[in-house]
Design brief:
Layout: E1 6-8, H1 13-20, E2 27-29, E3 38-42, E4 54-56, E5 62-64, E6 82-90, E7 93-99, H2 110-117, E8 127-133, E9 140-146, H3 156-169, E10 176-177, E11 180-182, E12 185-191, E13 197-200, E14 226-230, E15 233-241, E16 245-252, H4 265-273, E17 283-291, E18 294-301, E19 305-307, H5 311-323, E20 330-335, E21 338-344, E22 351-355, E23 358-366
Parallel strand pairs: 3-5, 7-8, 9-11, 16-17, 18-20
Antiparallel strand pairs: 1-4, 1-23, 2-3, 4-5, 6-7, 6-23, 8-9, 10-12, 11-12, 12-13, 13-22, 14-15, 15-16, 17-18, 18-19, 20-21, 21-22
Bound molecules: the ligand N[C@@H](CCC[C@H](N)C(=O)O)C(=O)O.
Subcellular location: Plastid, Chloroplast
Family: Belongs to the diaminopimelate epimerase family.
Catalytic activity: (2S,6S)-2,6-diaminopimelate = meso-2,6-diaminopimelate
Length: 367
């Protein structure tokens, strides 16, 4: 698969600015992709609905109209051998979103996902997400491949992006919620009036064998404040599944308080991910406590490495912090890409995550 992407900027402020100046040639173009303004040539006028322009980023960058006027939006296009996608991010955790509503087989294979996610030879992303037909009465199914091609059960930032993507596919605006079938069961994202997405992430799973972890459980079957030897250091860990496995640590037996900025994630992260105590590998969150309602975490994700944010990880962190007596049930969790609001409800034992999801660009690639 040779990757030559055509990208289209979203209908947000930057492209409107661009439209306003579209009669000049060359023009100054402010893309949301880069802080550096680019000078581009206009090949023709504007298109229909979603993409007002296509930007071909292959050899020479130029802007052109769609080949012919079509009543369809960009996302309705069907050309064999071409994948139309929208790239979204949730606090910098970025995904290639694929409209897969017409089939129950993902349109991209795990190997292709690896290539598409490559940040040098592909589009660049932490994963590929498919909006698929719902099952058992749900509105949709979400499937996802990590950037290493593995398939996780759930993705918190991804499901916020999926909600926004579906709203666009359905051409719906304003407050709206969807029932989504995932590998972690039913998840319900709700788009708020302010554009953020609040997600009912369901209940955390604490039973060691279901997380899964081979660490010896406490009497109630949970693994809370257990000792895990990683590379000669003894880490204190709490294991939580949000459908996908998480190992949360606040420090080692020697240093109880982590300073997460000082960690060498690329070194220590893989040692947790592939630790023999985690038969399905694990995501790992390294956490610093500022106050009972304010935490900071860095994450090493299973199948994706260091990412700027992890929604399921932030939920697992609040559960672990509550179980270890370090935090309240409602916290702000700071991630490298920004904050998430997490609440572990006492009423229904569900976790509620609120955060943003934004379009980065629209694009097409040959598959
Ligand atoms: N970034 C995601 C989690 C994606 C899946 C994870 N890498 C896994 O393999 O479990 C999130 O926001 O939750």
């Amino acid at each position: 698969m040779a990757i030559a992407a055509a990208i289209t900027v979203p209908l947000t402020t930057p492209s409107r600015r661009f439209l306003a100046s579209a009669s000049a040639n060359p023009i100054r173009f402010s893309s949301p992709l880069t802080a550096q303004p680019k000078y581009l040539k206009i090949a023709a006028g504007r298109g229909t609905q979603c993409p007002n322009f296509r930007i071909c980023a292959a050899s020479s960058m130029r802007i052109e109209a769609p080949e012919k006027a079509s009543p369809d939006s960009f996302l309705d296009r069907k050309e064999s051998g071409i994948l139309h996608f929208v790239k979204y991010h949730g606090l910098g955790n970025d995904f290639i979103l694929v409209d897969n509503r017409d089939t129950t087989e993902p349109k991209v294979s795990p190997d292709q996902a690896v290539q598409l996610c490559d940040r040098n030879f592909g589009i660049g992303a932490d994963g590929v997400i498919f909006a698929m037909p719902g099952v058992n009465g749900t509105d949709y199914t979400m499937r996802i491949f990590n950037s290493d091609g593995s398939e996780p059960e759930m993705c918190g930032n991804g499901i916020r992006c999926l909600a926004k993507f579906i709203a666009e596919l359905e051409n719906s605006r304003g407050k709206r919620s969807f029932t989504i079938h995932t590998g972690a069961g039913l998840i319900v994202p709700e788009i708020q009036e302010d554009g953020k997405v609040r997600v009912d992430m369901g209940e955390p799973i604490l039973k060691a064998s279901d997380v899964p972890t081979k660490l010896p459980p406490n009497k109630d079957q949970s693994v809370v404040k257990a000792r895990l030897d990683v590379d000669g250091s003894e880490w204190n860990v709490t294991c939580v599944s949000m459908g996908n496995p998480h190992c949360v640590t606040f420090g080692t037996s020697q240093s109880q308080d982590l300073h997460v900025d000082e960690l060498n994630l690329a070194d220590i992260g893989p040692k947790f991910e592939h630790h023999v105590m985690f038969p399905a590998r694990t995501n790992t969150e390294f956490v610093q406590v500022f106050s009972p309602t304010h935490l900071k975490m860095h994450v090493w994700e299973r199948g994706a490495g260091a990412t700027l944010a992890c929604g399921t990880g932030a939920c697992a962190v609040v559960v672990a912090a509550v179980l270890e007596g370090r935090a309240a049930r409602r916290c702000t969790v700071d991630l490298p890409g920004g904050p998430l609001d997490i609440e572990w409800s006492e009423k229904d034992n569900h976790i509620y995550m609120t955060g943003p999801a934004e379009v980065v660009f629209y694009g097409s690639v040959p598959l």
